């Protein structure tokens, strides 16, 4: 891995501004992003960070799941509540029709039920119940490849099209970047992003989010969450370099609201390649 020297700091700010959307879906200003290229030197006896929680770790590959930006923004909970509200009002309207037939005094309720049922419920239910929210990333140290699954949103998170994408990258081309931006006092953004830099060309860069801090309850909690960023990067680097890492076991996972893991499945060929101890031909 070589440090990205031909791409300026300003260009990297613009790159991340294009890739990251502010909570609420609005574009962000590149100059307000703070970036830091993380070191690549492995550390001996690095303690396993509290994040990420492992899905699977062995001598061939390590896999863990990470959240998209809307988990931090609370869109899943909002989708759940809007779905619950829509279903409740639709049930009330259906029951009133069954008991009393059409009632002009309930016209507003009928219109509200129509709007909720036709426009709100489909998008809210999609993001709450039918979208996998915690997507895995695999690090195969035998083949020195990483395998990434991401969600691409075209338009609004509720009403736009959501596509699941898969990519294979060479570990030697991967850089670790710490990205920070404060939207408000109660909504900071701090994330660990992997940037695939094959050609030192700004137009050829690819990135994926590995870890994102959540809204802090205190300054101490924010500092604790931010400290995970270099820890996770160095832990991944140590693992891929066959250096000493601790805690190579399945870790207990905390309660996560509507993670929808049952909706995710690796493509058969990529699943085979990412678990293999040798490079398989295409």
Automatic annotation (TrEMBL):
It holds the Pfam family DUF6708. This is DUF6708 domain-containing protein. Residues 124-245 form the DUF6708 domain.
């Amino acid at each position: 891995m070589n440090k990205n020297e031909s791409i300026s700091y300003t260009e990297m700010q613009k790159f991340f501004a294009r890739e990251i959307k502010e909570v609420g879906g609005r574009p962000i200003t590149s100059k307000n992003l703070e970036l830091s290229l993380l070191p690549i030197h492995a550390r001996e006896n690095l303690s396993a960070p509290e994040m990420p929680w492992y899905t699977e770790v062995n001598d061939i590959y390590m896999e863990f799941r990470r959240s998209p930006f809307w988990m931090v923004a609370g869109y899943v909970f909002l989708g759940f509540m809007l779905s619950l509200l829509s279903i409740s009002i639709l049930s009330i309207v259906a029951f009133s029709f069954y008991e009393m037939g059409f009632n002009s005094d309930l016209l507003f309720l009928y219109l509200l039920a129509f709007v909720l049922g036709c426009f709100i419920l489909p998008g809210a239910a999609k993001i709450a119940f039918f979208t996998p929210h915690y997507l895995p990333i695999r690090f195969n140290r035998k083949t020195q490849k990483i395998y990434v699954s991401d969600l691409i949103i075209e338009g609004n998170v509720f009403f736009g099209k959501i596509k699941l994408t898969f990519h294979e990258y060479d570990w030697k081309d991967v850089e670790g970047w710490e990205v920070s931006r404060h939207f408000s006092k109660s909504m900071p953004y701090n994330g660990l992003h992997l940037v695939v830099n094959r050609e030192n060309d700004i137009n050829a860069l690819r990135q994926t989010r590995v870890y994102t801090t959540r809204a802090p309850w205190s300054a101490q909690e924010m500092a604790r969450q931010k400290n995970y960023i270099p820890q996770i990067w160095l832990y991944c680097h140590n693992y891929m370099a066959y250096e000493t890492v601790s805690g190579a076991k399945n870790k207990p996972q905390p309660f996560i609201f509507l993670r929808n893991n049952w909706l995710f499945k690796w493509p058969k060929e990529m699943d085979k390649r990412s678990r293999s101890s040798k490079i398989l031909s295409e």
